[in-house]
Amino acid sequence: MKGNDPIRRGVMGYPSEELSDPFAALEEAASRDTPSRRTLYIHIPFCRSRCLFCPFFLDTADEETFHNYARLLCRELESSADLLGRFPVNAVYFGGGTPTGLAAEDFSAVMRTLRSRYRLTNDCEITVEGRIDDLSSGKLDAYLESGVNRFSIGVQTFRTETRRLLGRRTSGTEIPALLNRVSARNEASVVVDLLYGLPGQTAEQWTEDLRILMEETRVSGVDFYHLKSRKHLPLENHLAAGRLPPLPSLDAAFAMFREALARMEECGAIRLSPMHFAFETRERNLNNSISAYKNVCLPFGMKAVGRLGGCRILQSADAGEYERLVMEDRKPLASVGMLPPDFPVSGELSGELYNRRSLNPGRIAAVAPERSGRIRESLERAIPKWVEAGYLLPARNGWFRMTELADFTHRPMATDLMEAAAEAWQ
Ligand SMILES: C[S@@+](CC[C@H](N)C(=O)[O-])C[C@H]1O[C@@H](n2cnc3c(N)ncnc32)[C@H](O)[C@@H]1O
Ligand code: SF4
Q1: Is there an atom of ligand 1 within 6 Å of 131 CB?
Q2: H or E element: which one contains 18?
Q3: What domains appear along the chain, each with residue ranges and CATH number?
């Protein structure tokens, strides 16, 4: 850990000790790879336009920029293949930004390199994230022919007025038909992101979004995200200046989440995580399911983050540096950090919260047999306050079930339990 590092253990972030030679560190990490399930992440940091609410935005890009970037990705994949291409990969995720901004030929070129130089398992999930209005039929053909078997589409809301306020161009009424056209190809799972707690959003508007999802679309699954505003987001300035109606209260947002849960229950949706539901078994949510356990993730592209052999890998977010390193056939690393020995235990904890919505201190402690007694004690000391606060319910055989409140917001609890487990190393 760096001196008095303020980074706390969490579902997303984790403290690590930056290593002085990241290139050598990556080679060493590759030699320590574990036979867990693995993901491969390709980051496409560009979007055609910016949405006010989005913390993932890096830059806008035209076709030329997407094209040059795809060329660099092919080269990065090619030159990293000797080091990273020998591990079987269970899920590939093109995330962003807006990967569907890649032209058909550029996307096909990236997939060709990937398939020829990396080992994708027979049941590998290959997801492309993006916008439905990007998927012209020619592009859809090319993506499907390259082997894409899952699209994760950010719908956010079907309400045109709210979409326009947030910077989305396509009208909400066009979206169900566009989604259904992709589903009708019967080649890929189509999952959508819906946001609740939007500026000025009422319970009725949210109910209407849920109605449209269930009655007008034939998608394979849905993720419900609570819109969070943060400093430095354009959303925050617009709200502060009164250019947008205020966000619903936390209680109102929780009520919206519960309404979504009730809707999922009544239609018999299959629950795959606190906020992800499948409407058919084609949808597996494999990438997120594996990632939640903080397993190996091989990162490619600018600003991509990954994990390998007990290290956290961060790729350069600087376009010039990214290009220079790729053209020198070096991995475009910004840093490689050694993760602490408690990391696998936190991985198990985070994976269980995401995938099972349940946890069992004995099962989590068993990940580190040499300290299991102390980890279990620490967790058993920390858990009662989360039971009392209404996040966990004791169940049979040492299990604790997450409540609806924990499904809505479990990050503070996850951080607290991870910090507690880490005490076993002090
Ligand atoms: C990396 S974004 C990519 C989305 C895709 N490019 C699009 O335009 O829809 C993934 C998802 O994060 C969610 N998201 C973005 N900003 C958010 C915020 N401020 N709070 C909660 N979820 C957010 C959105 O639902 C979005 O679909
Ligand atoms: S929601 Fe998608 S298109 Fe909008 S800024 Fe974020 S990543 Fe870009």
Answers
A1: yes
A2: strand 17-18
A3: 19-292 (3.80.30.20), 343-425 (1.10.10)
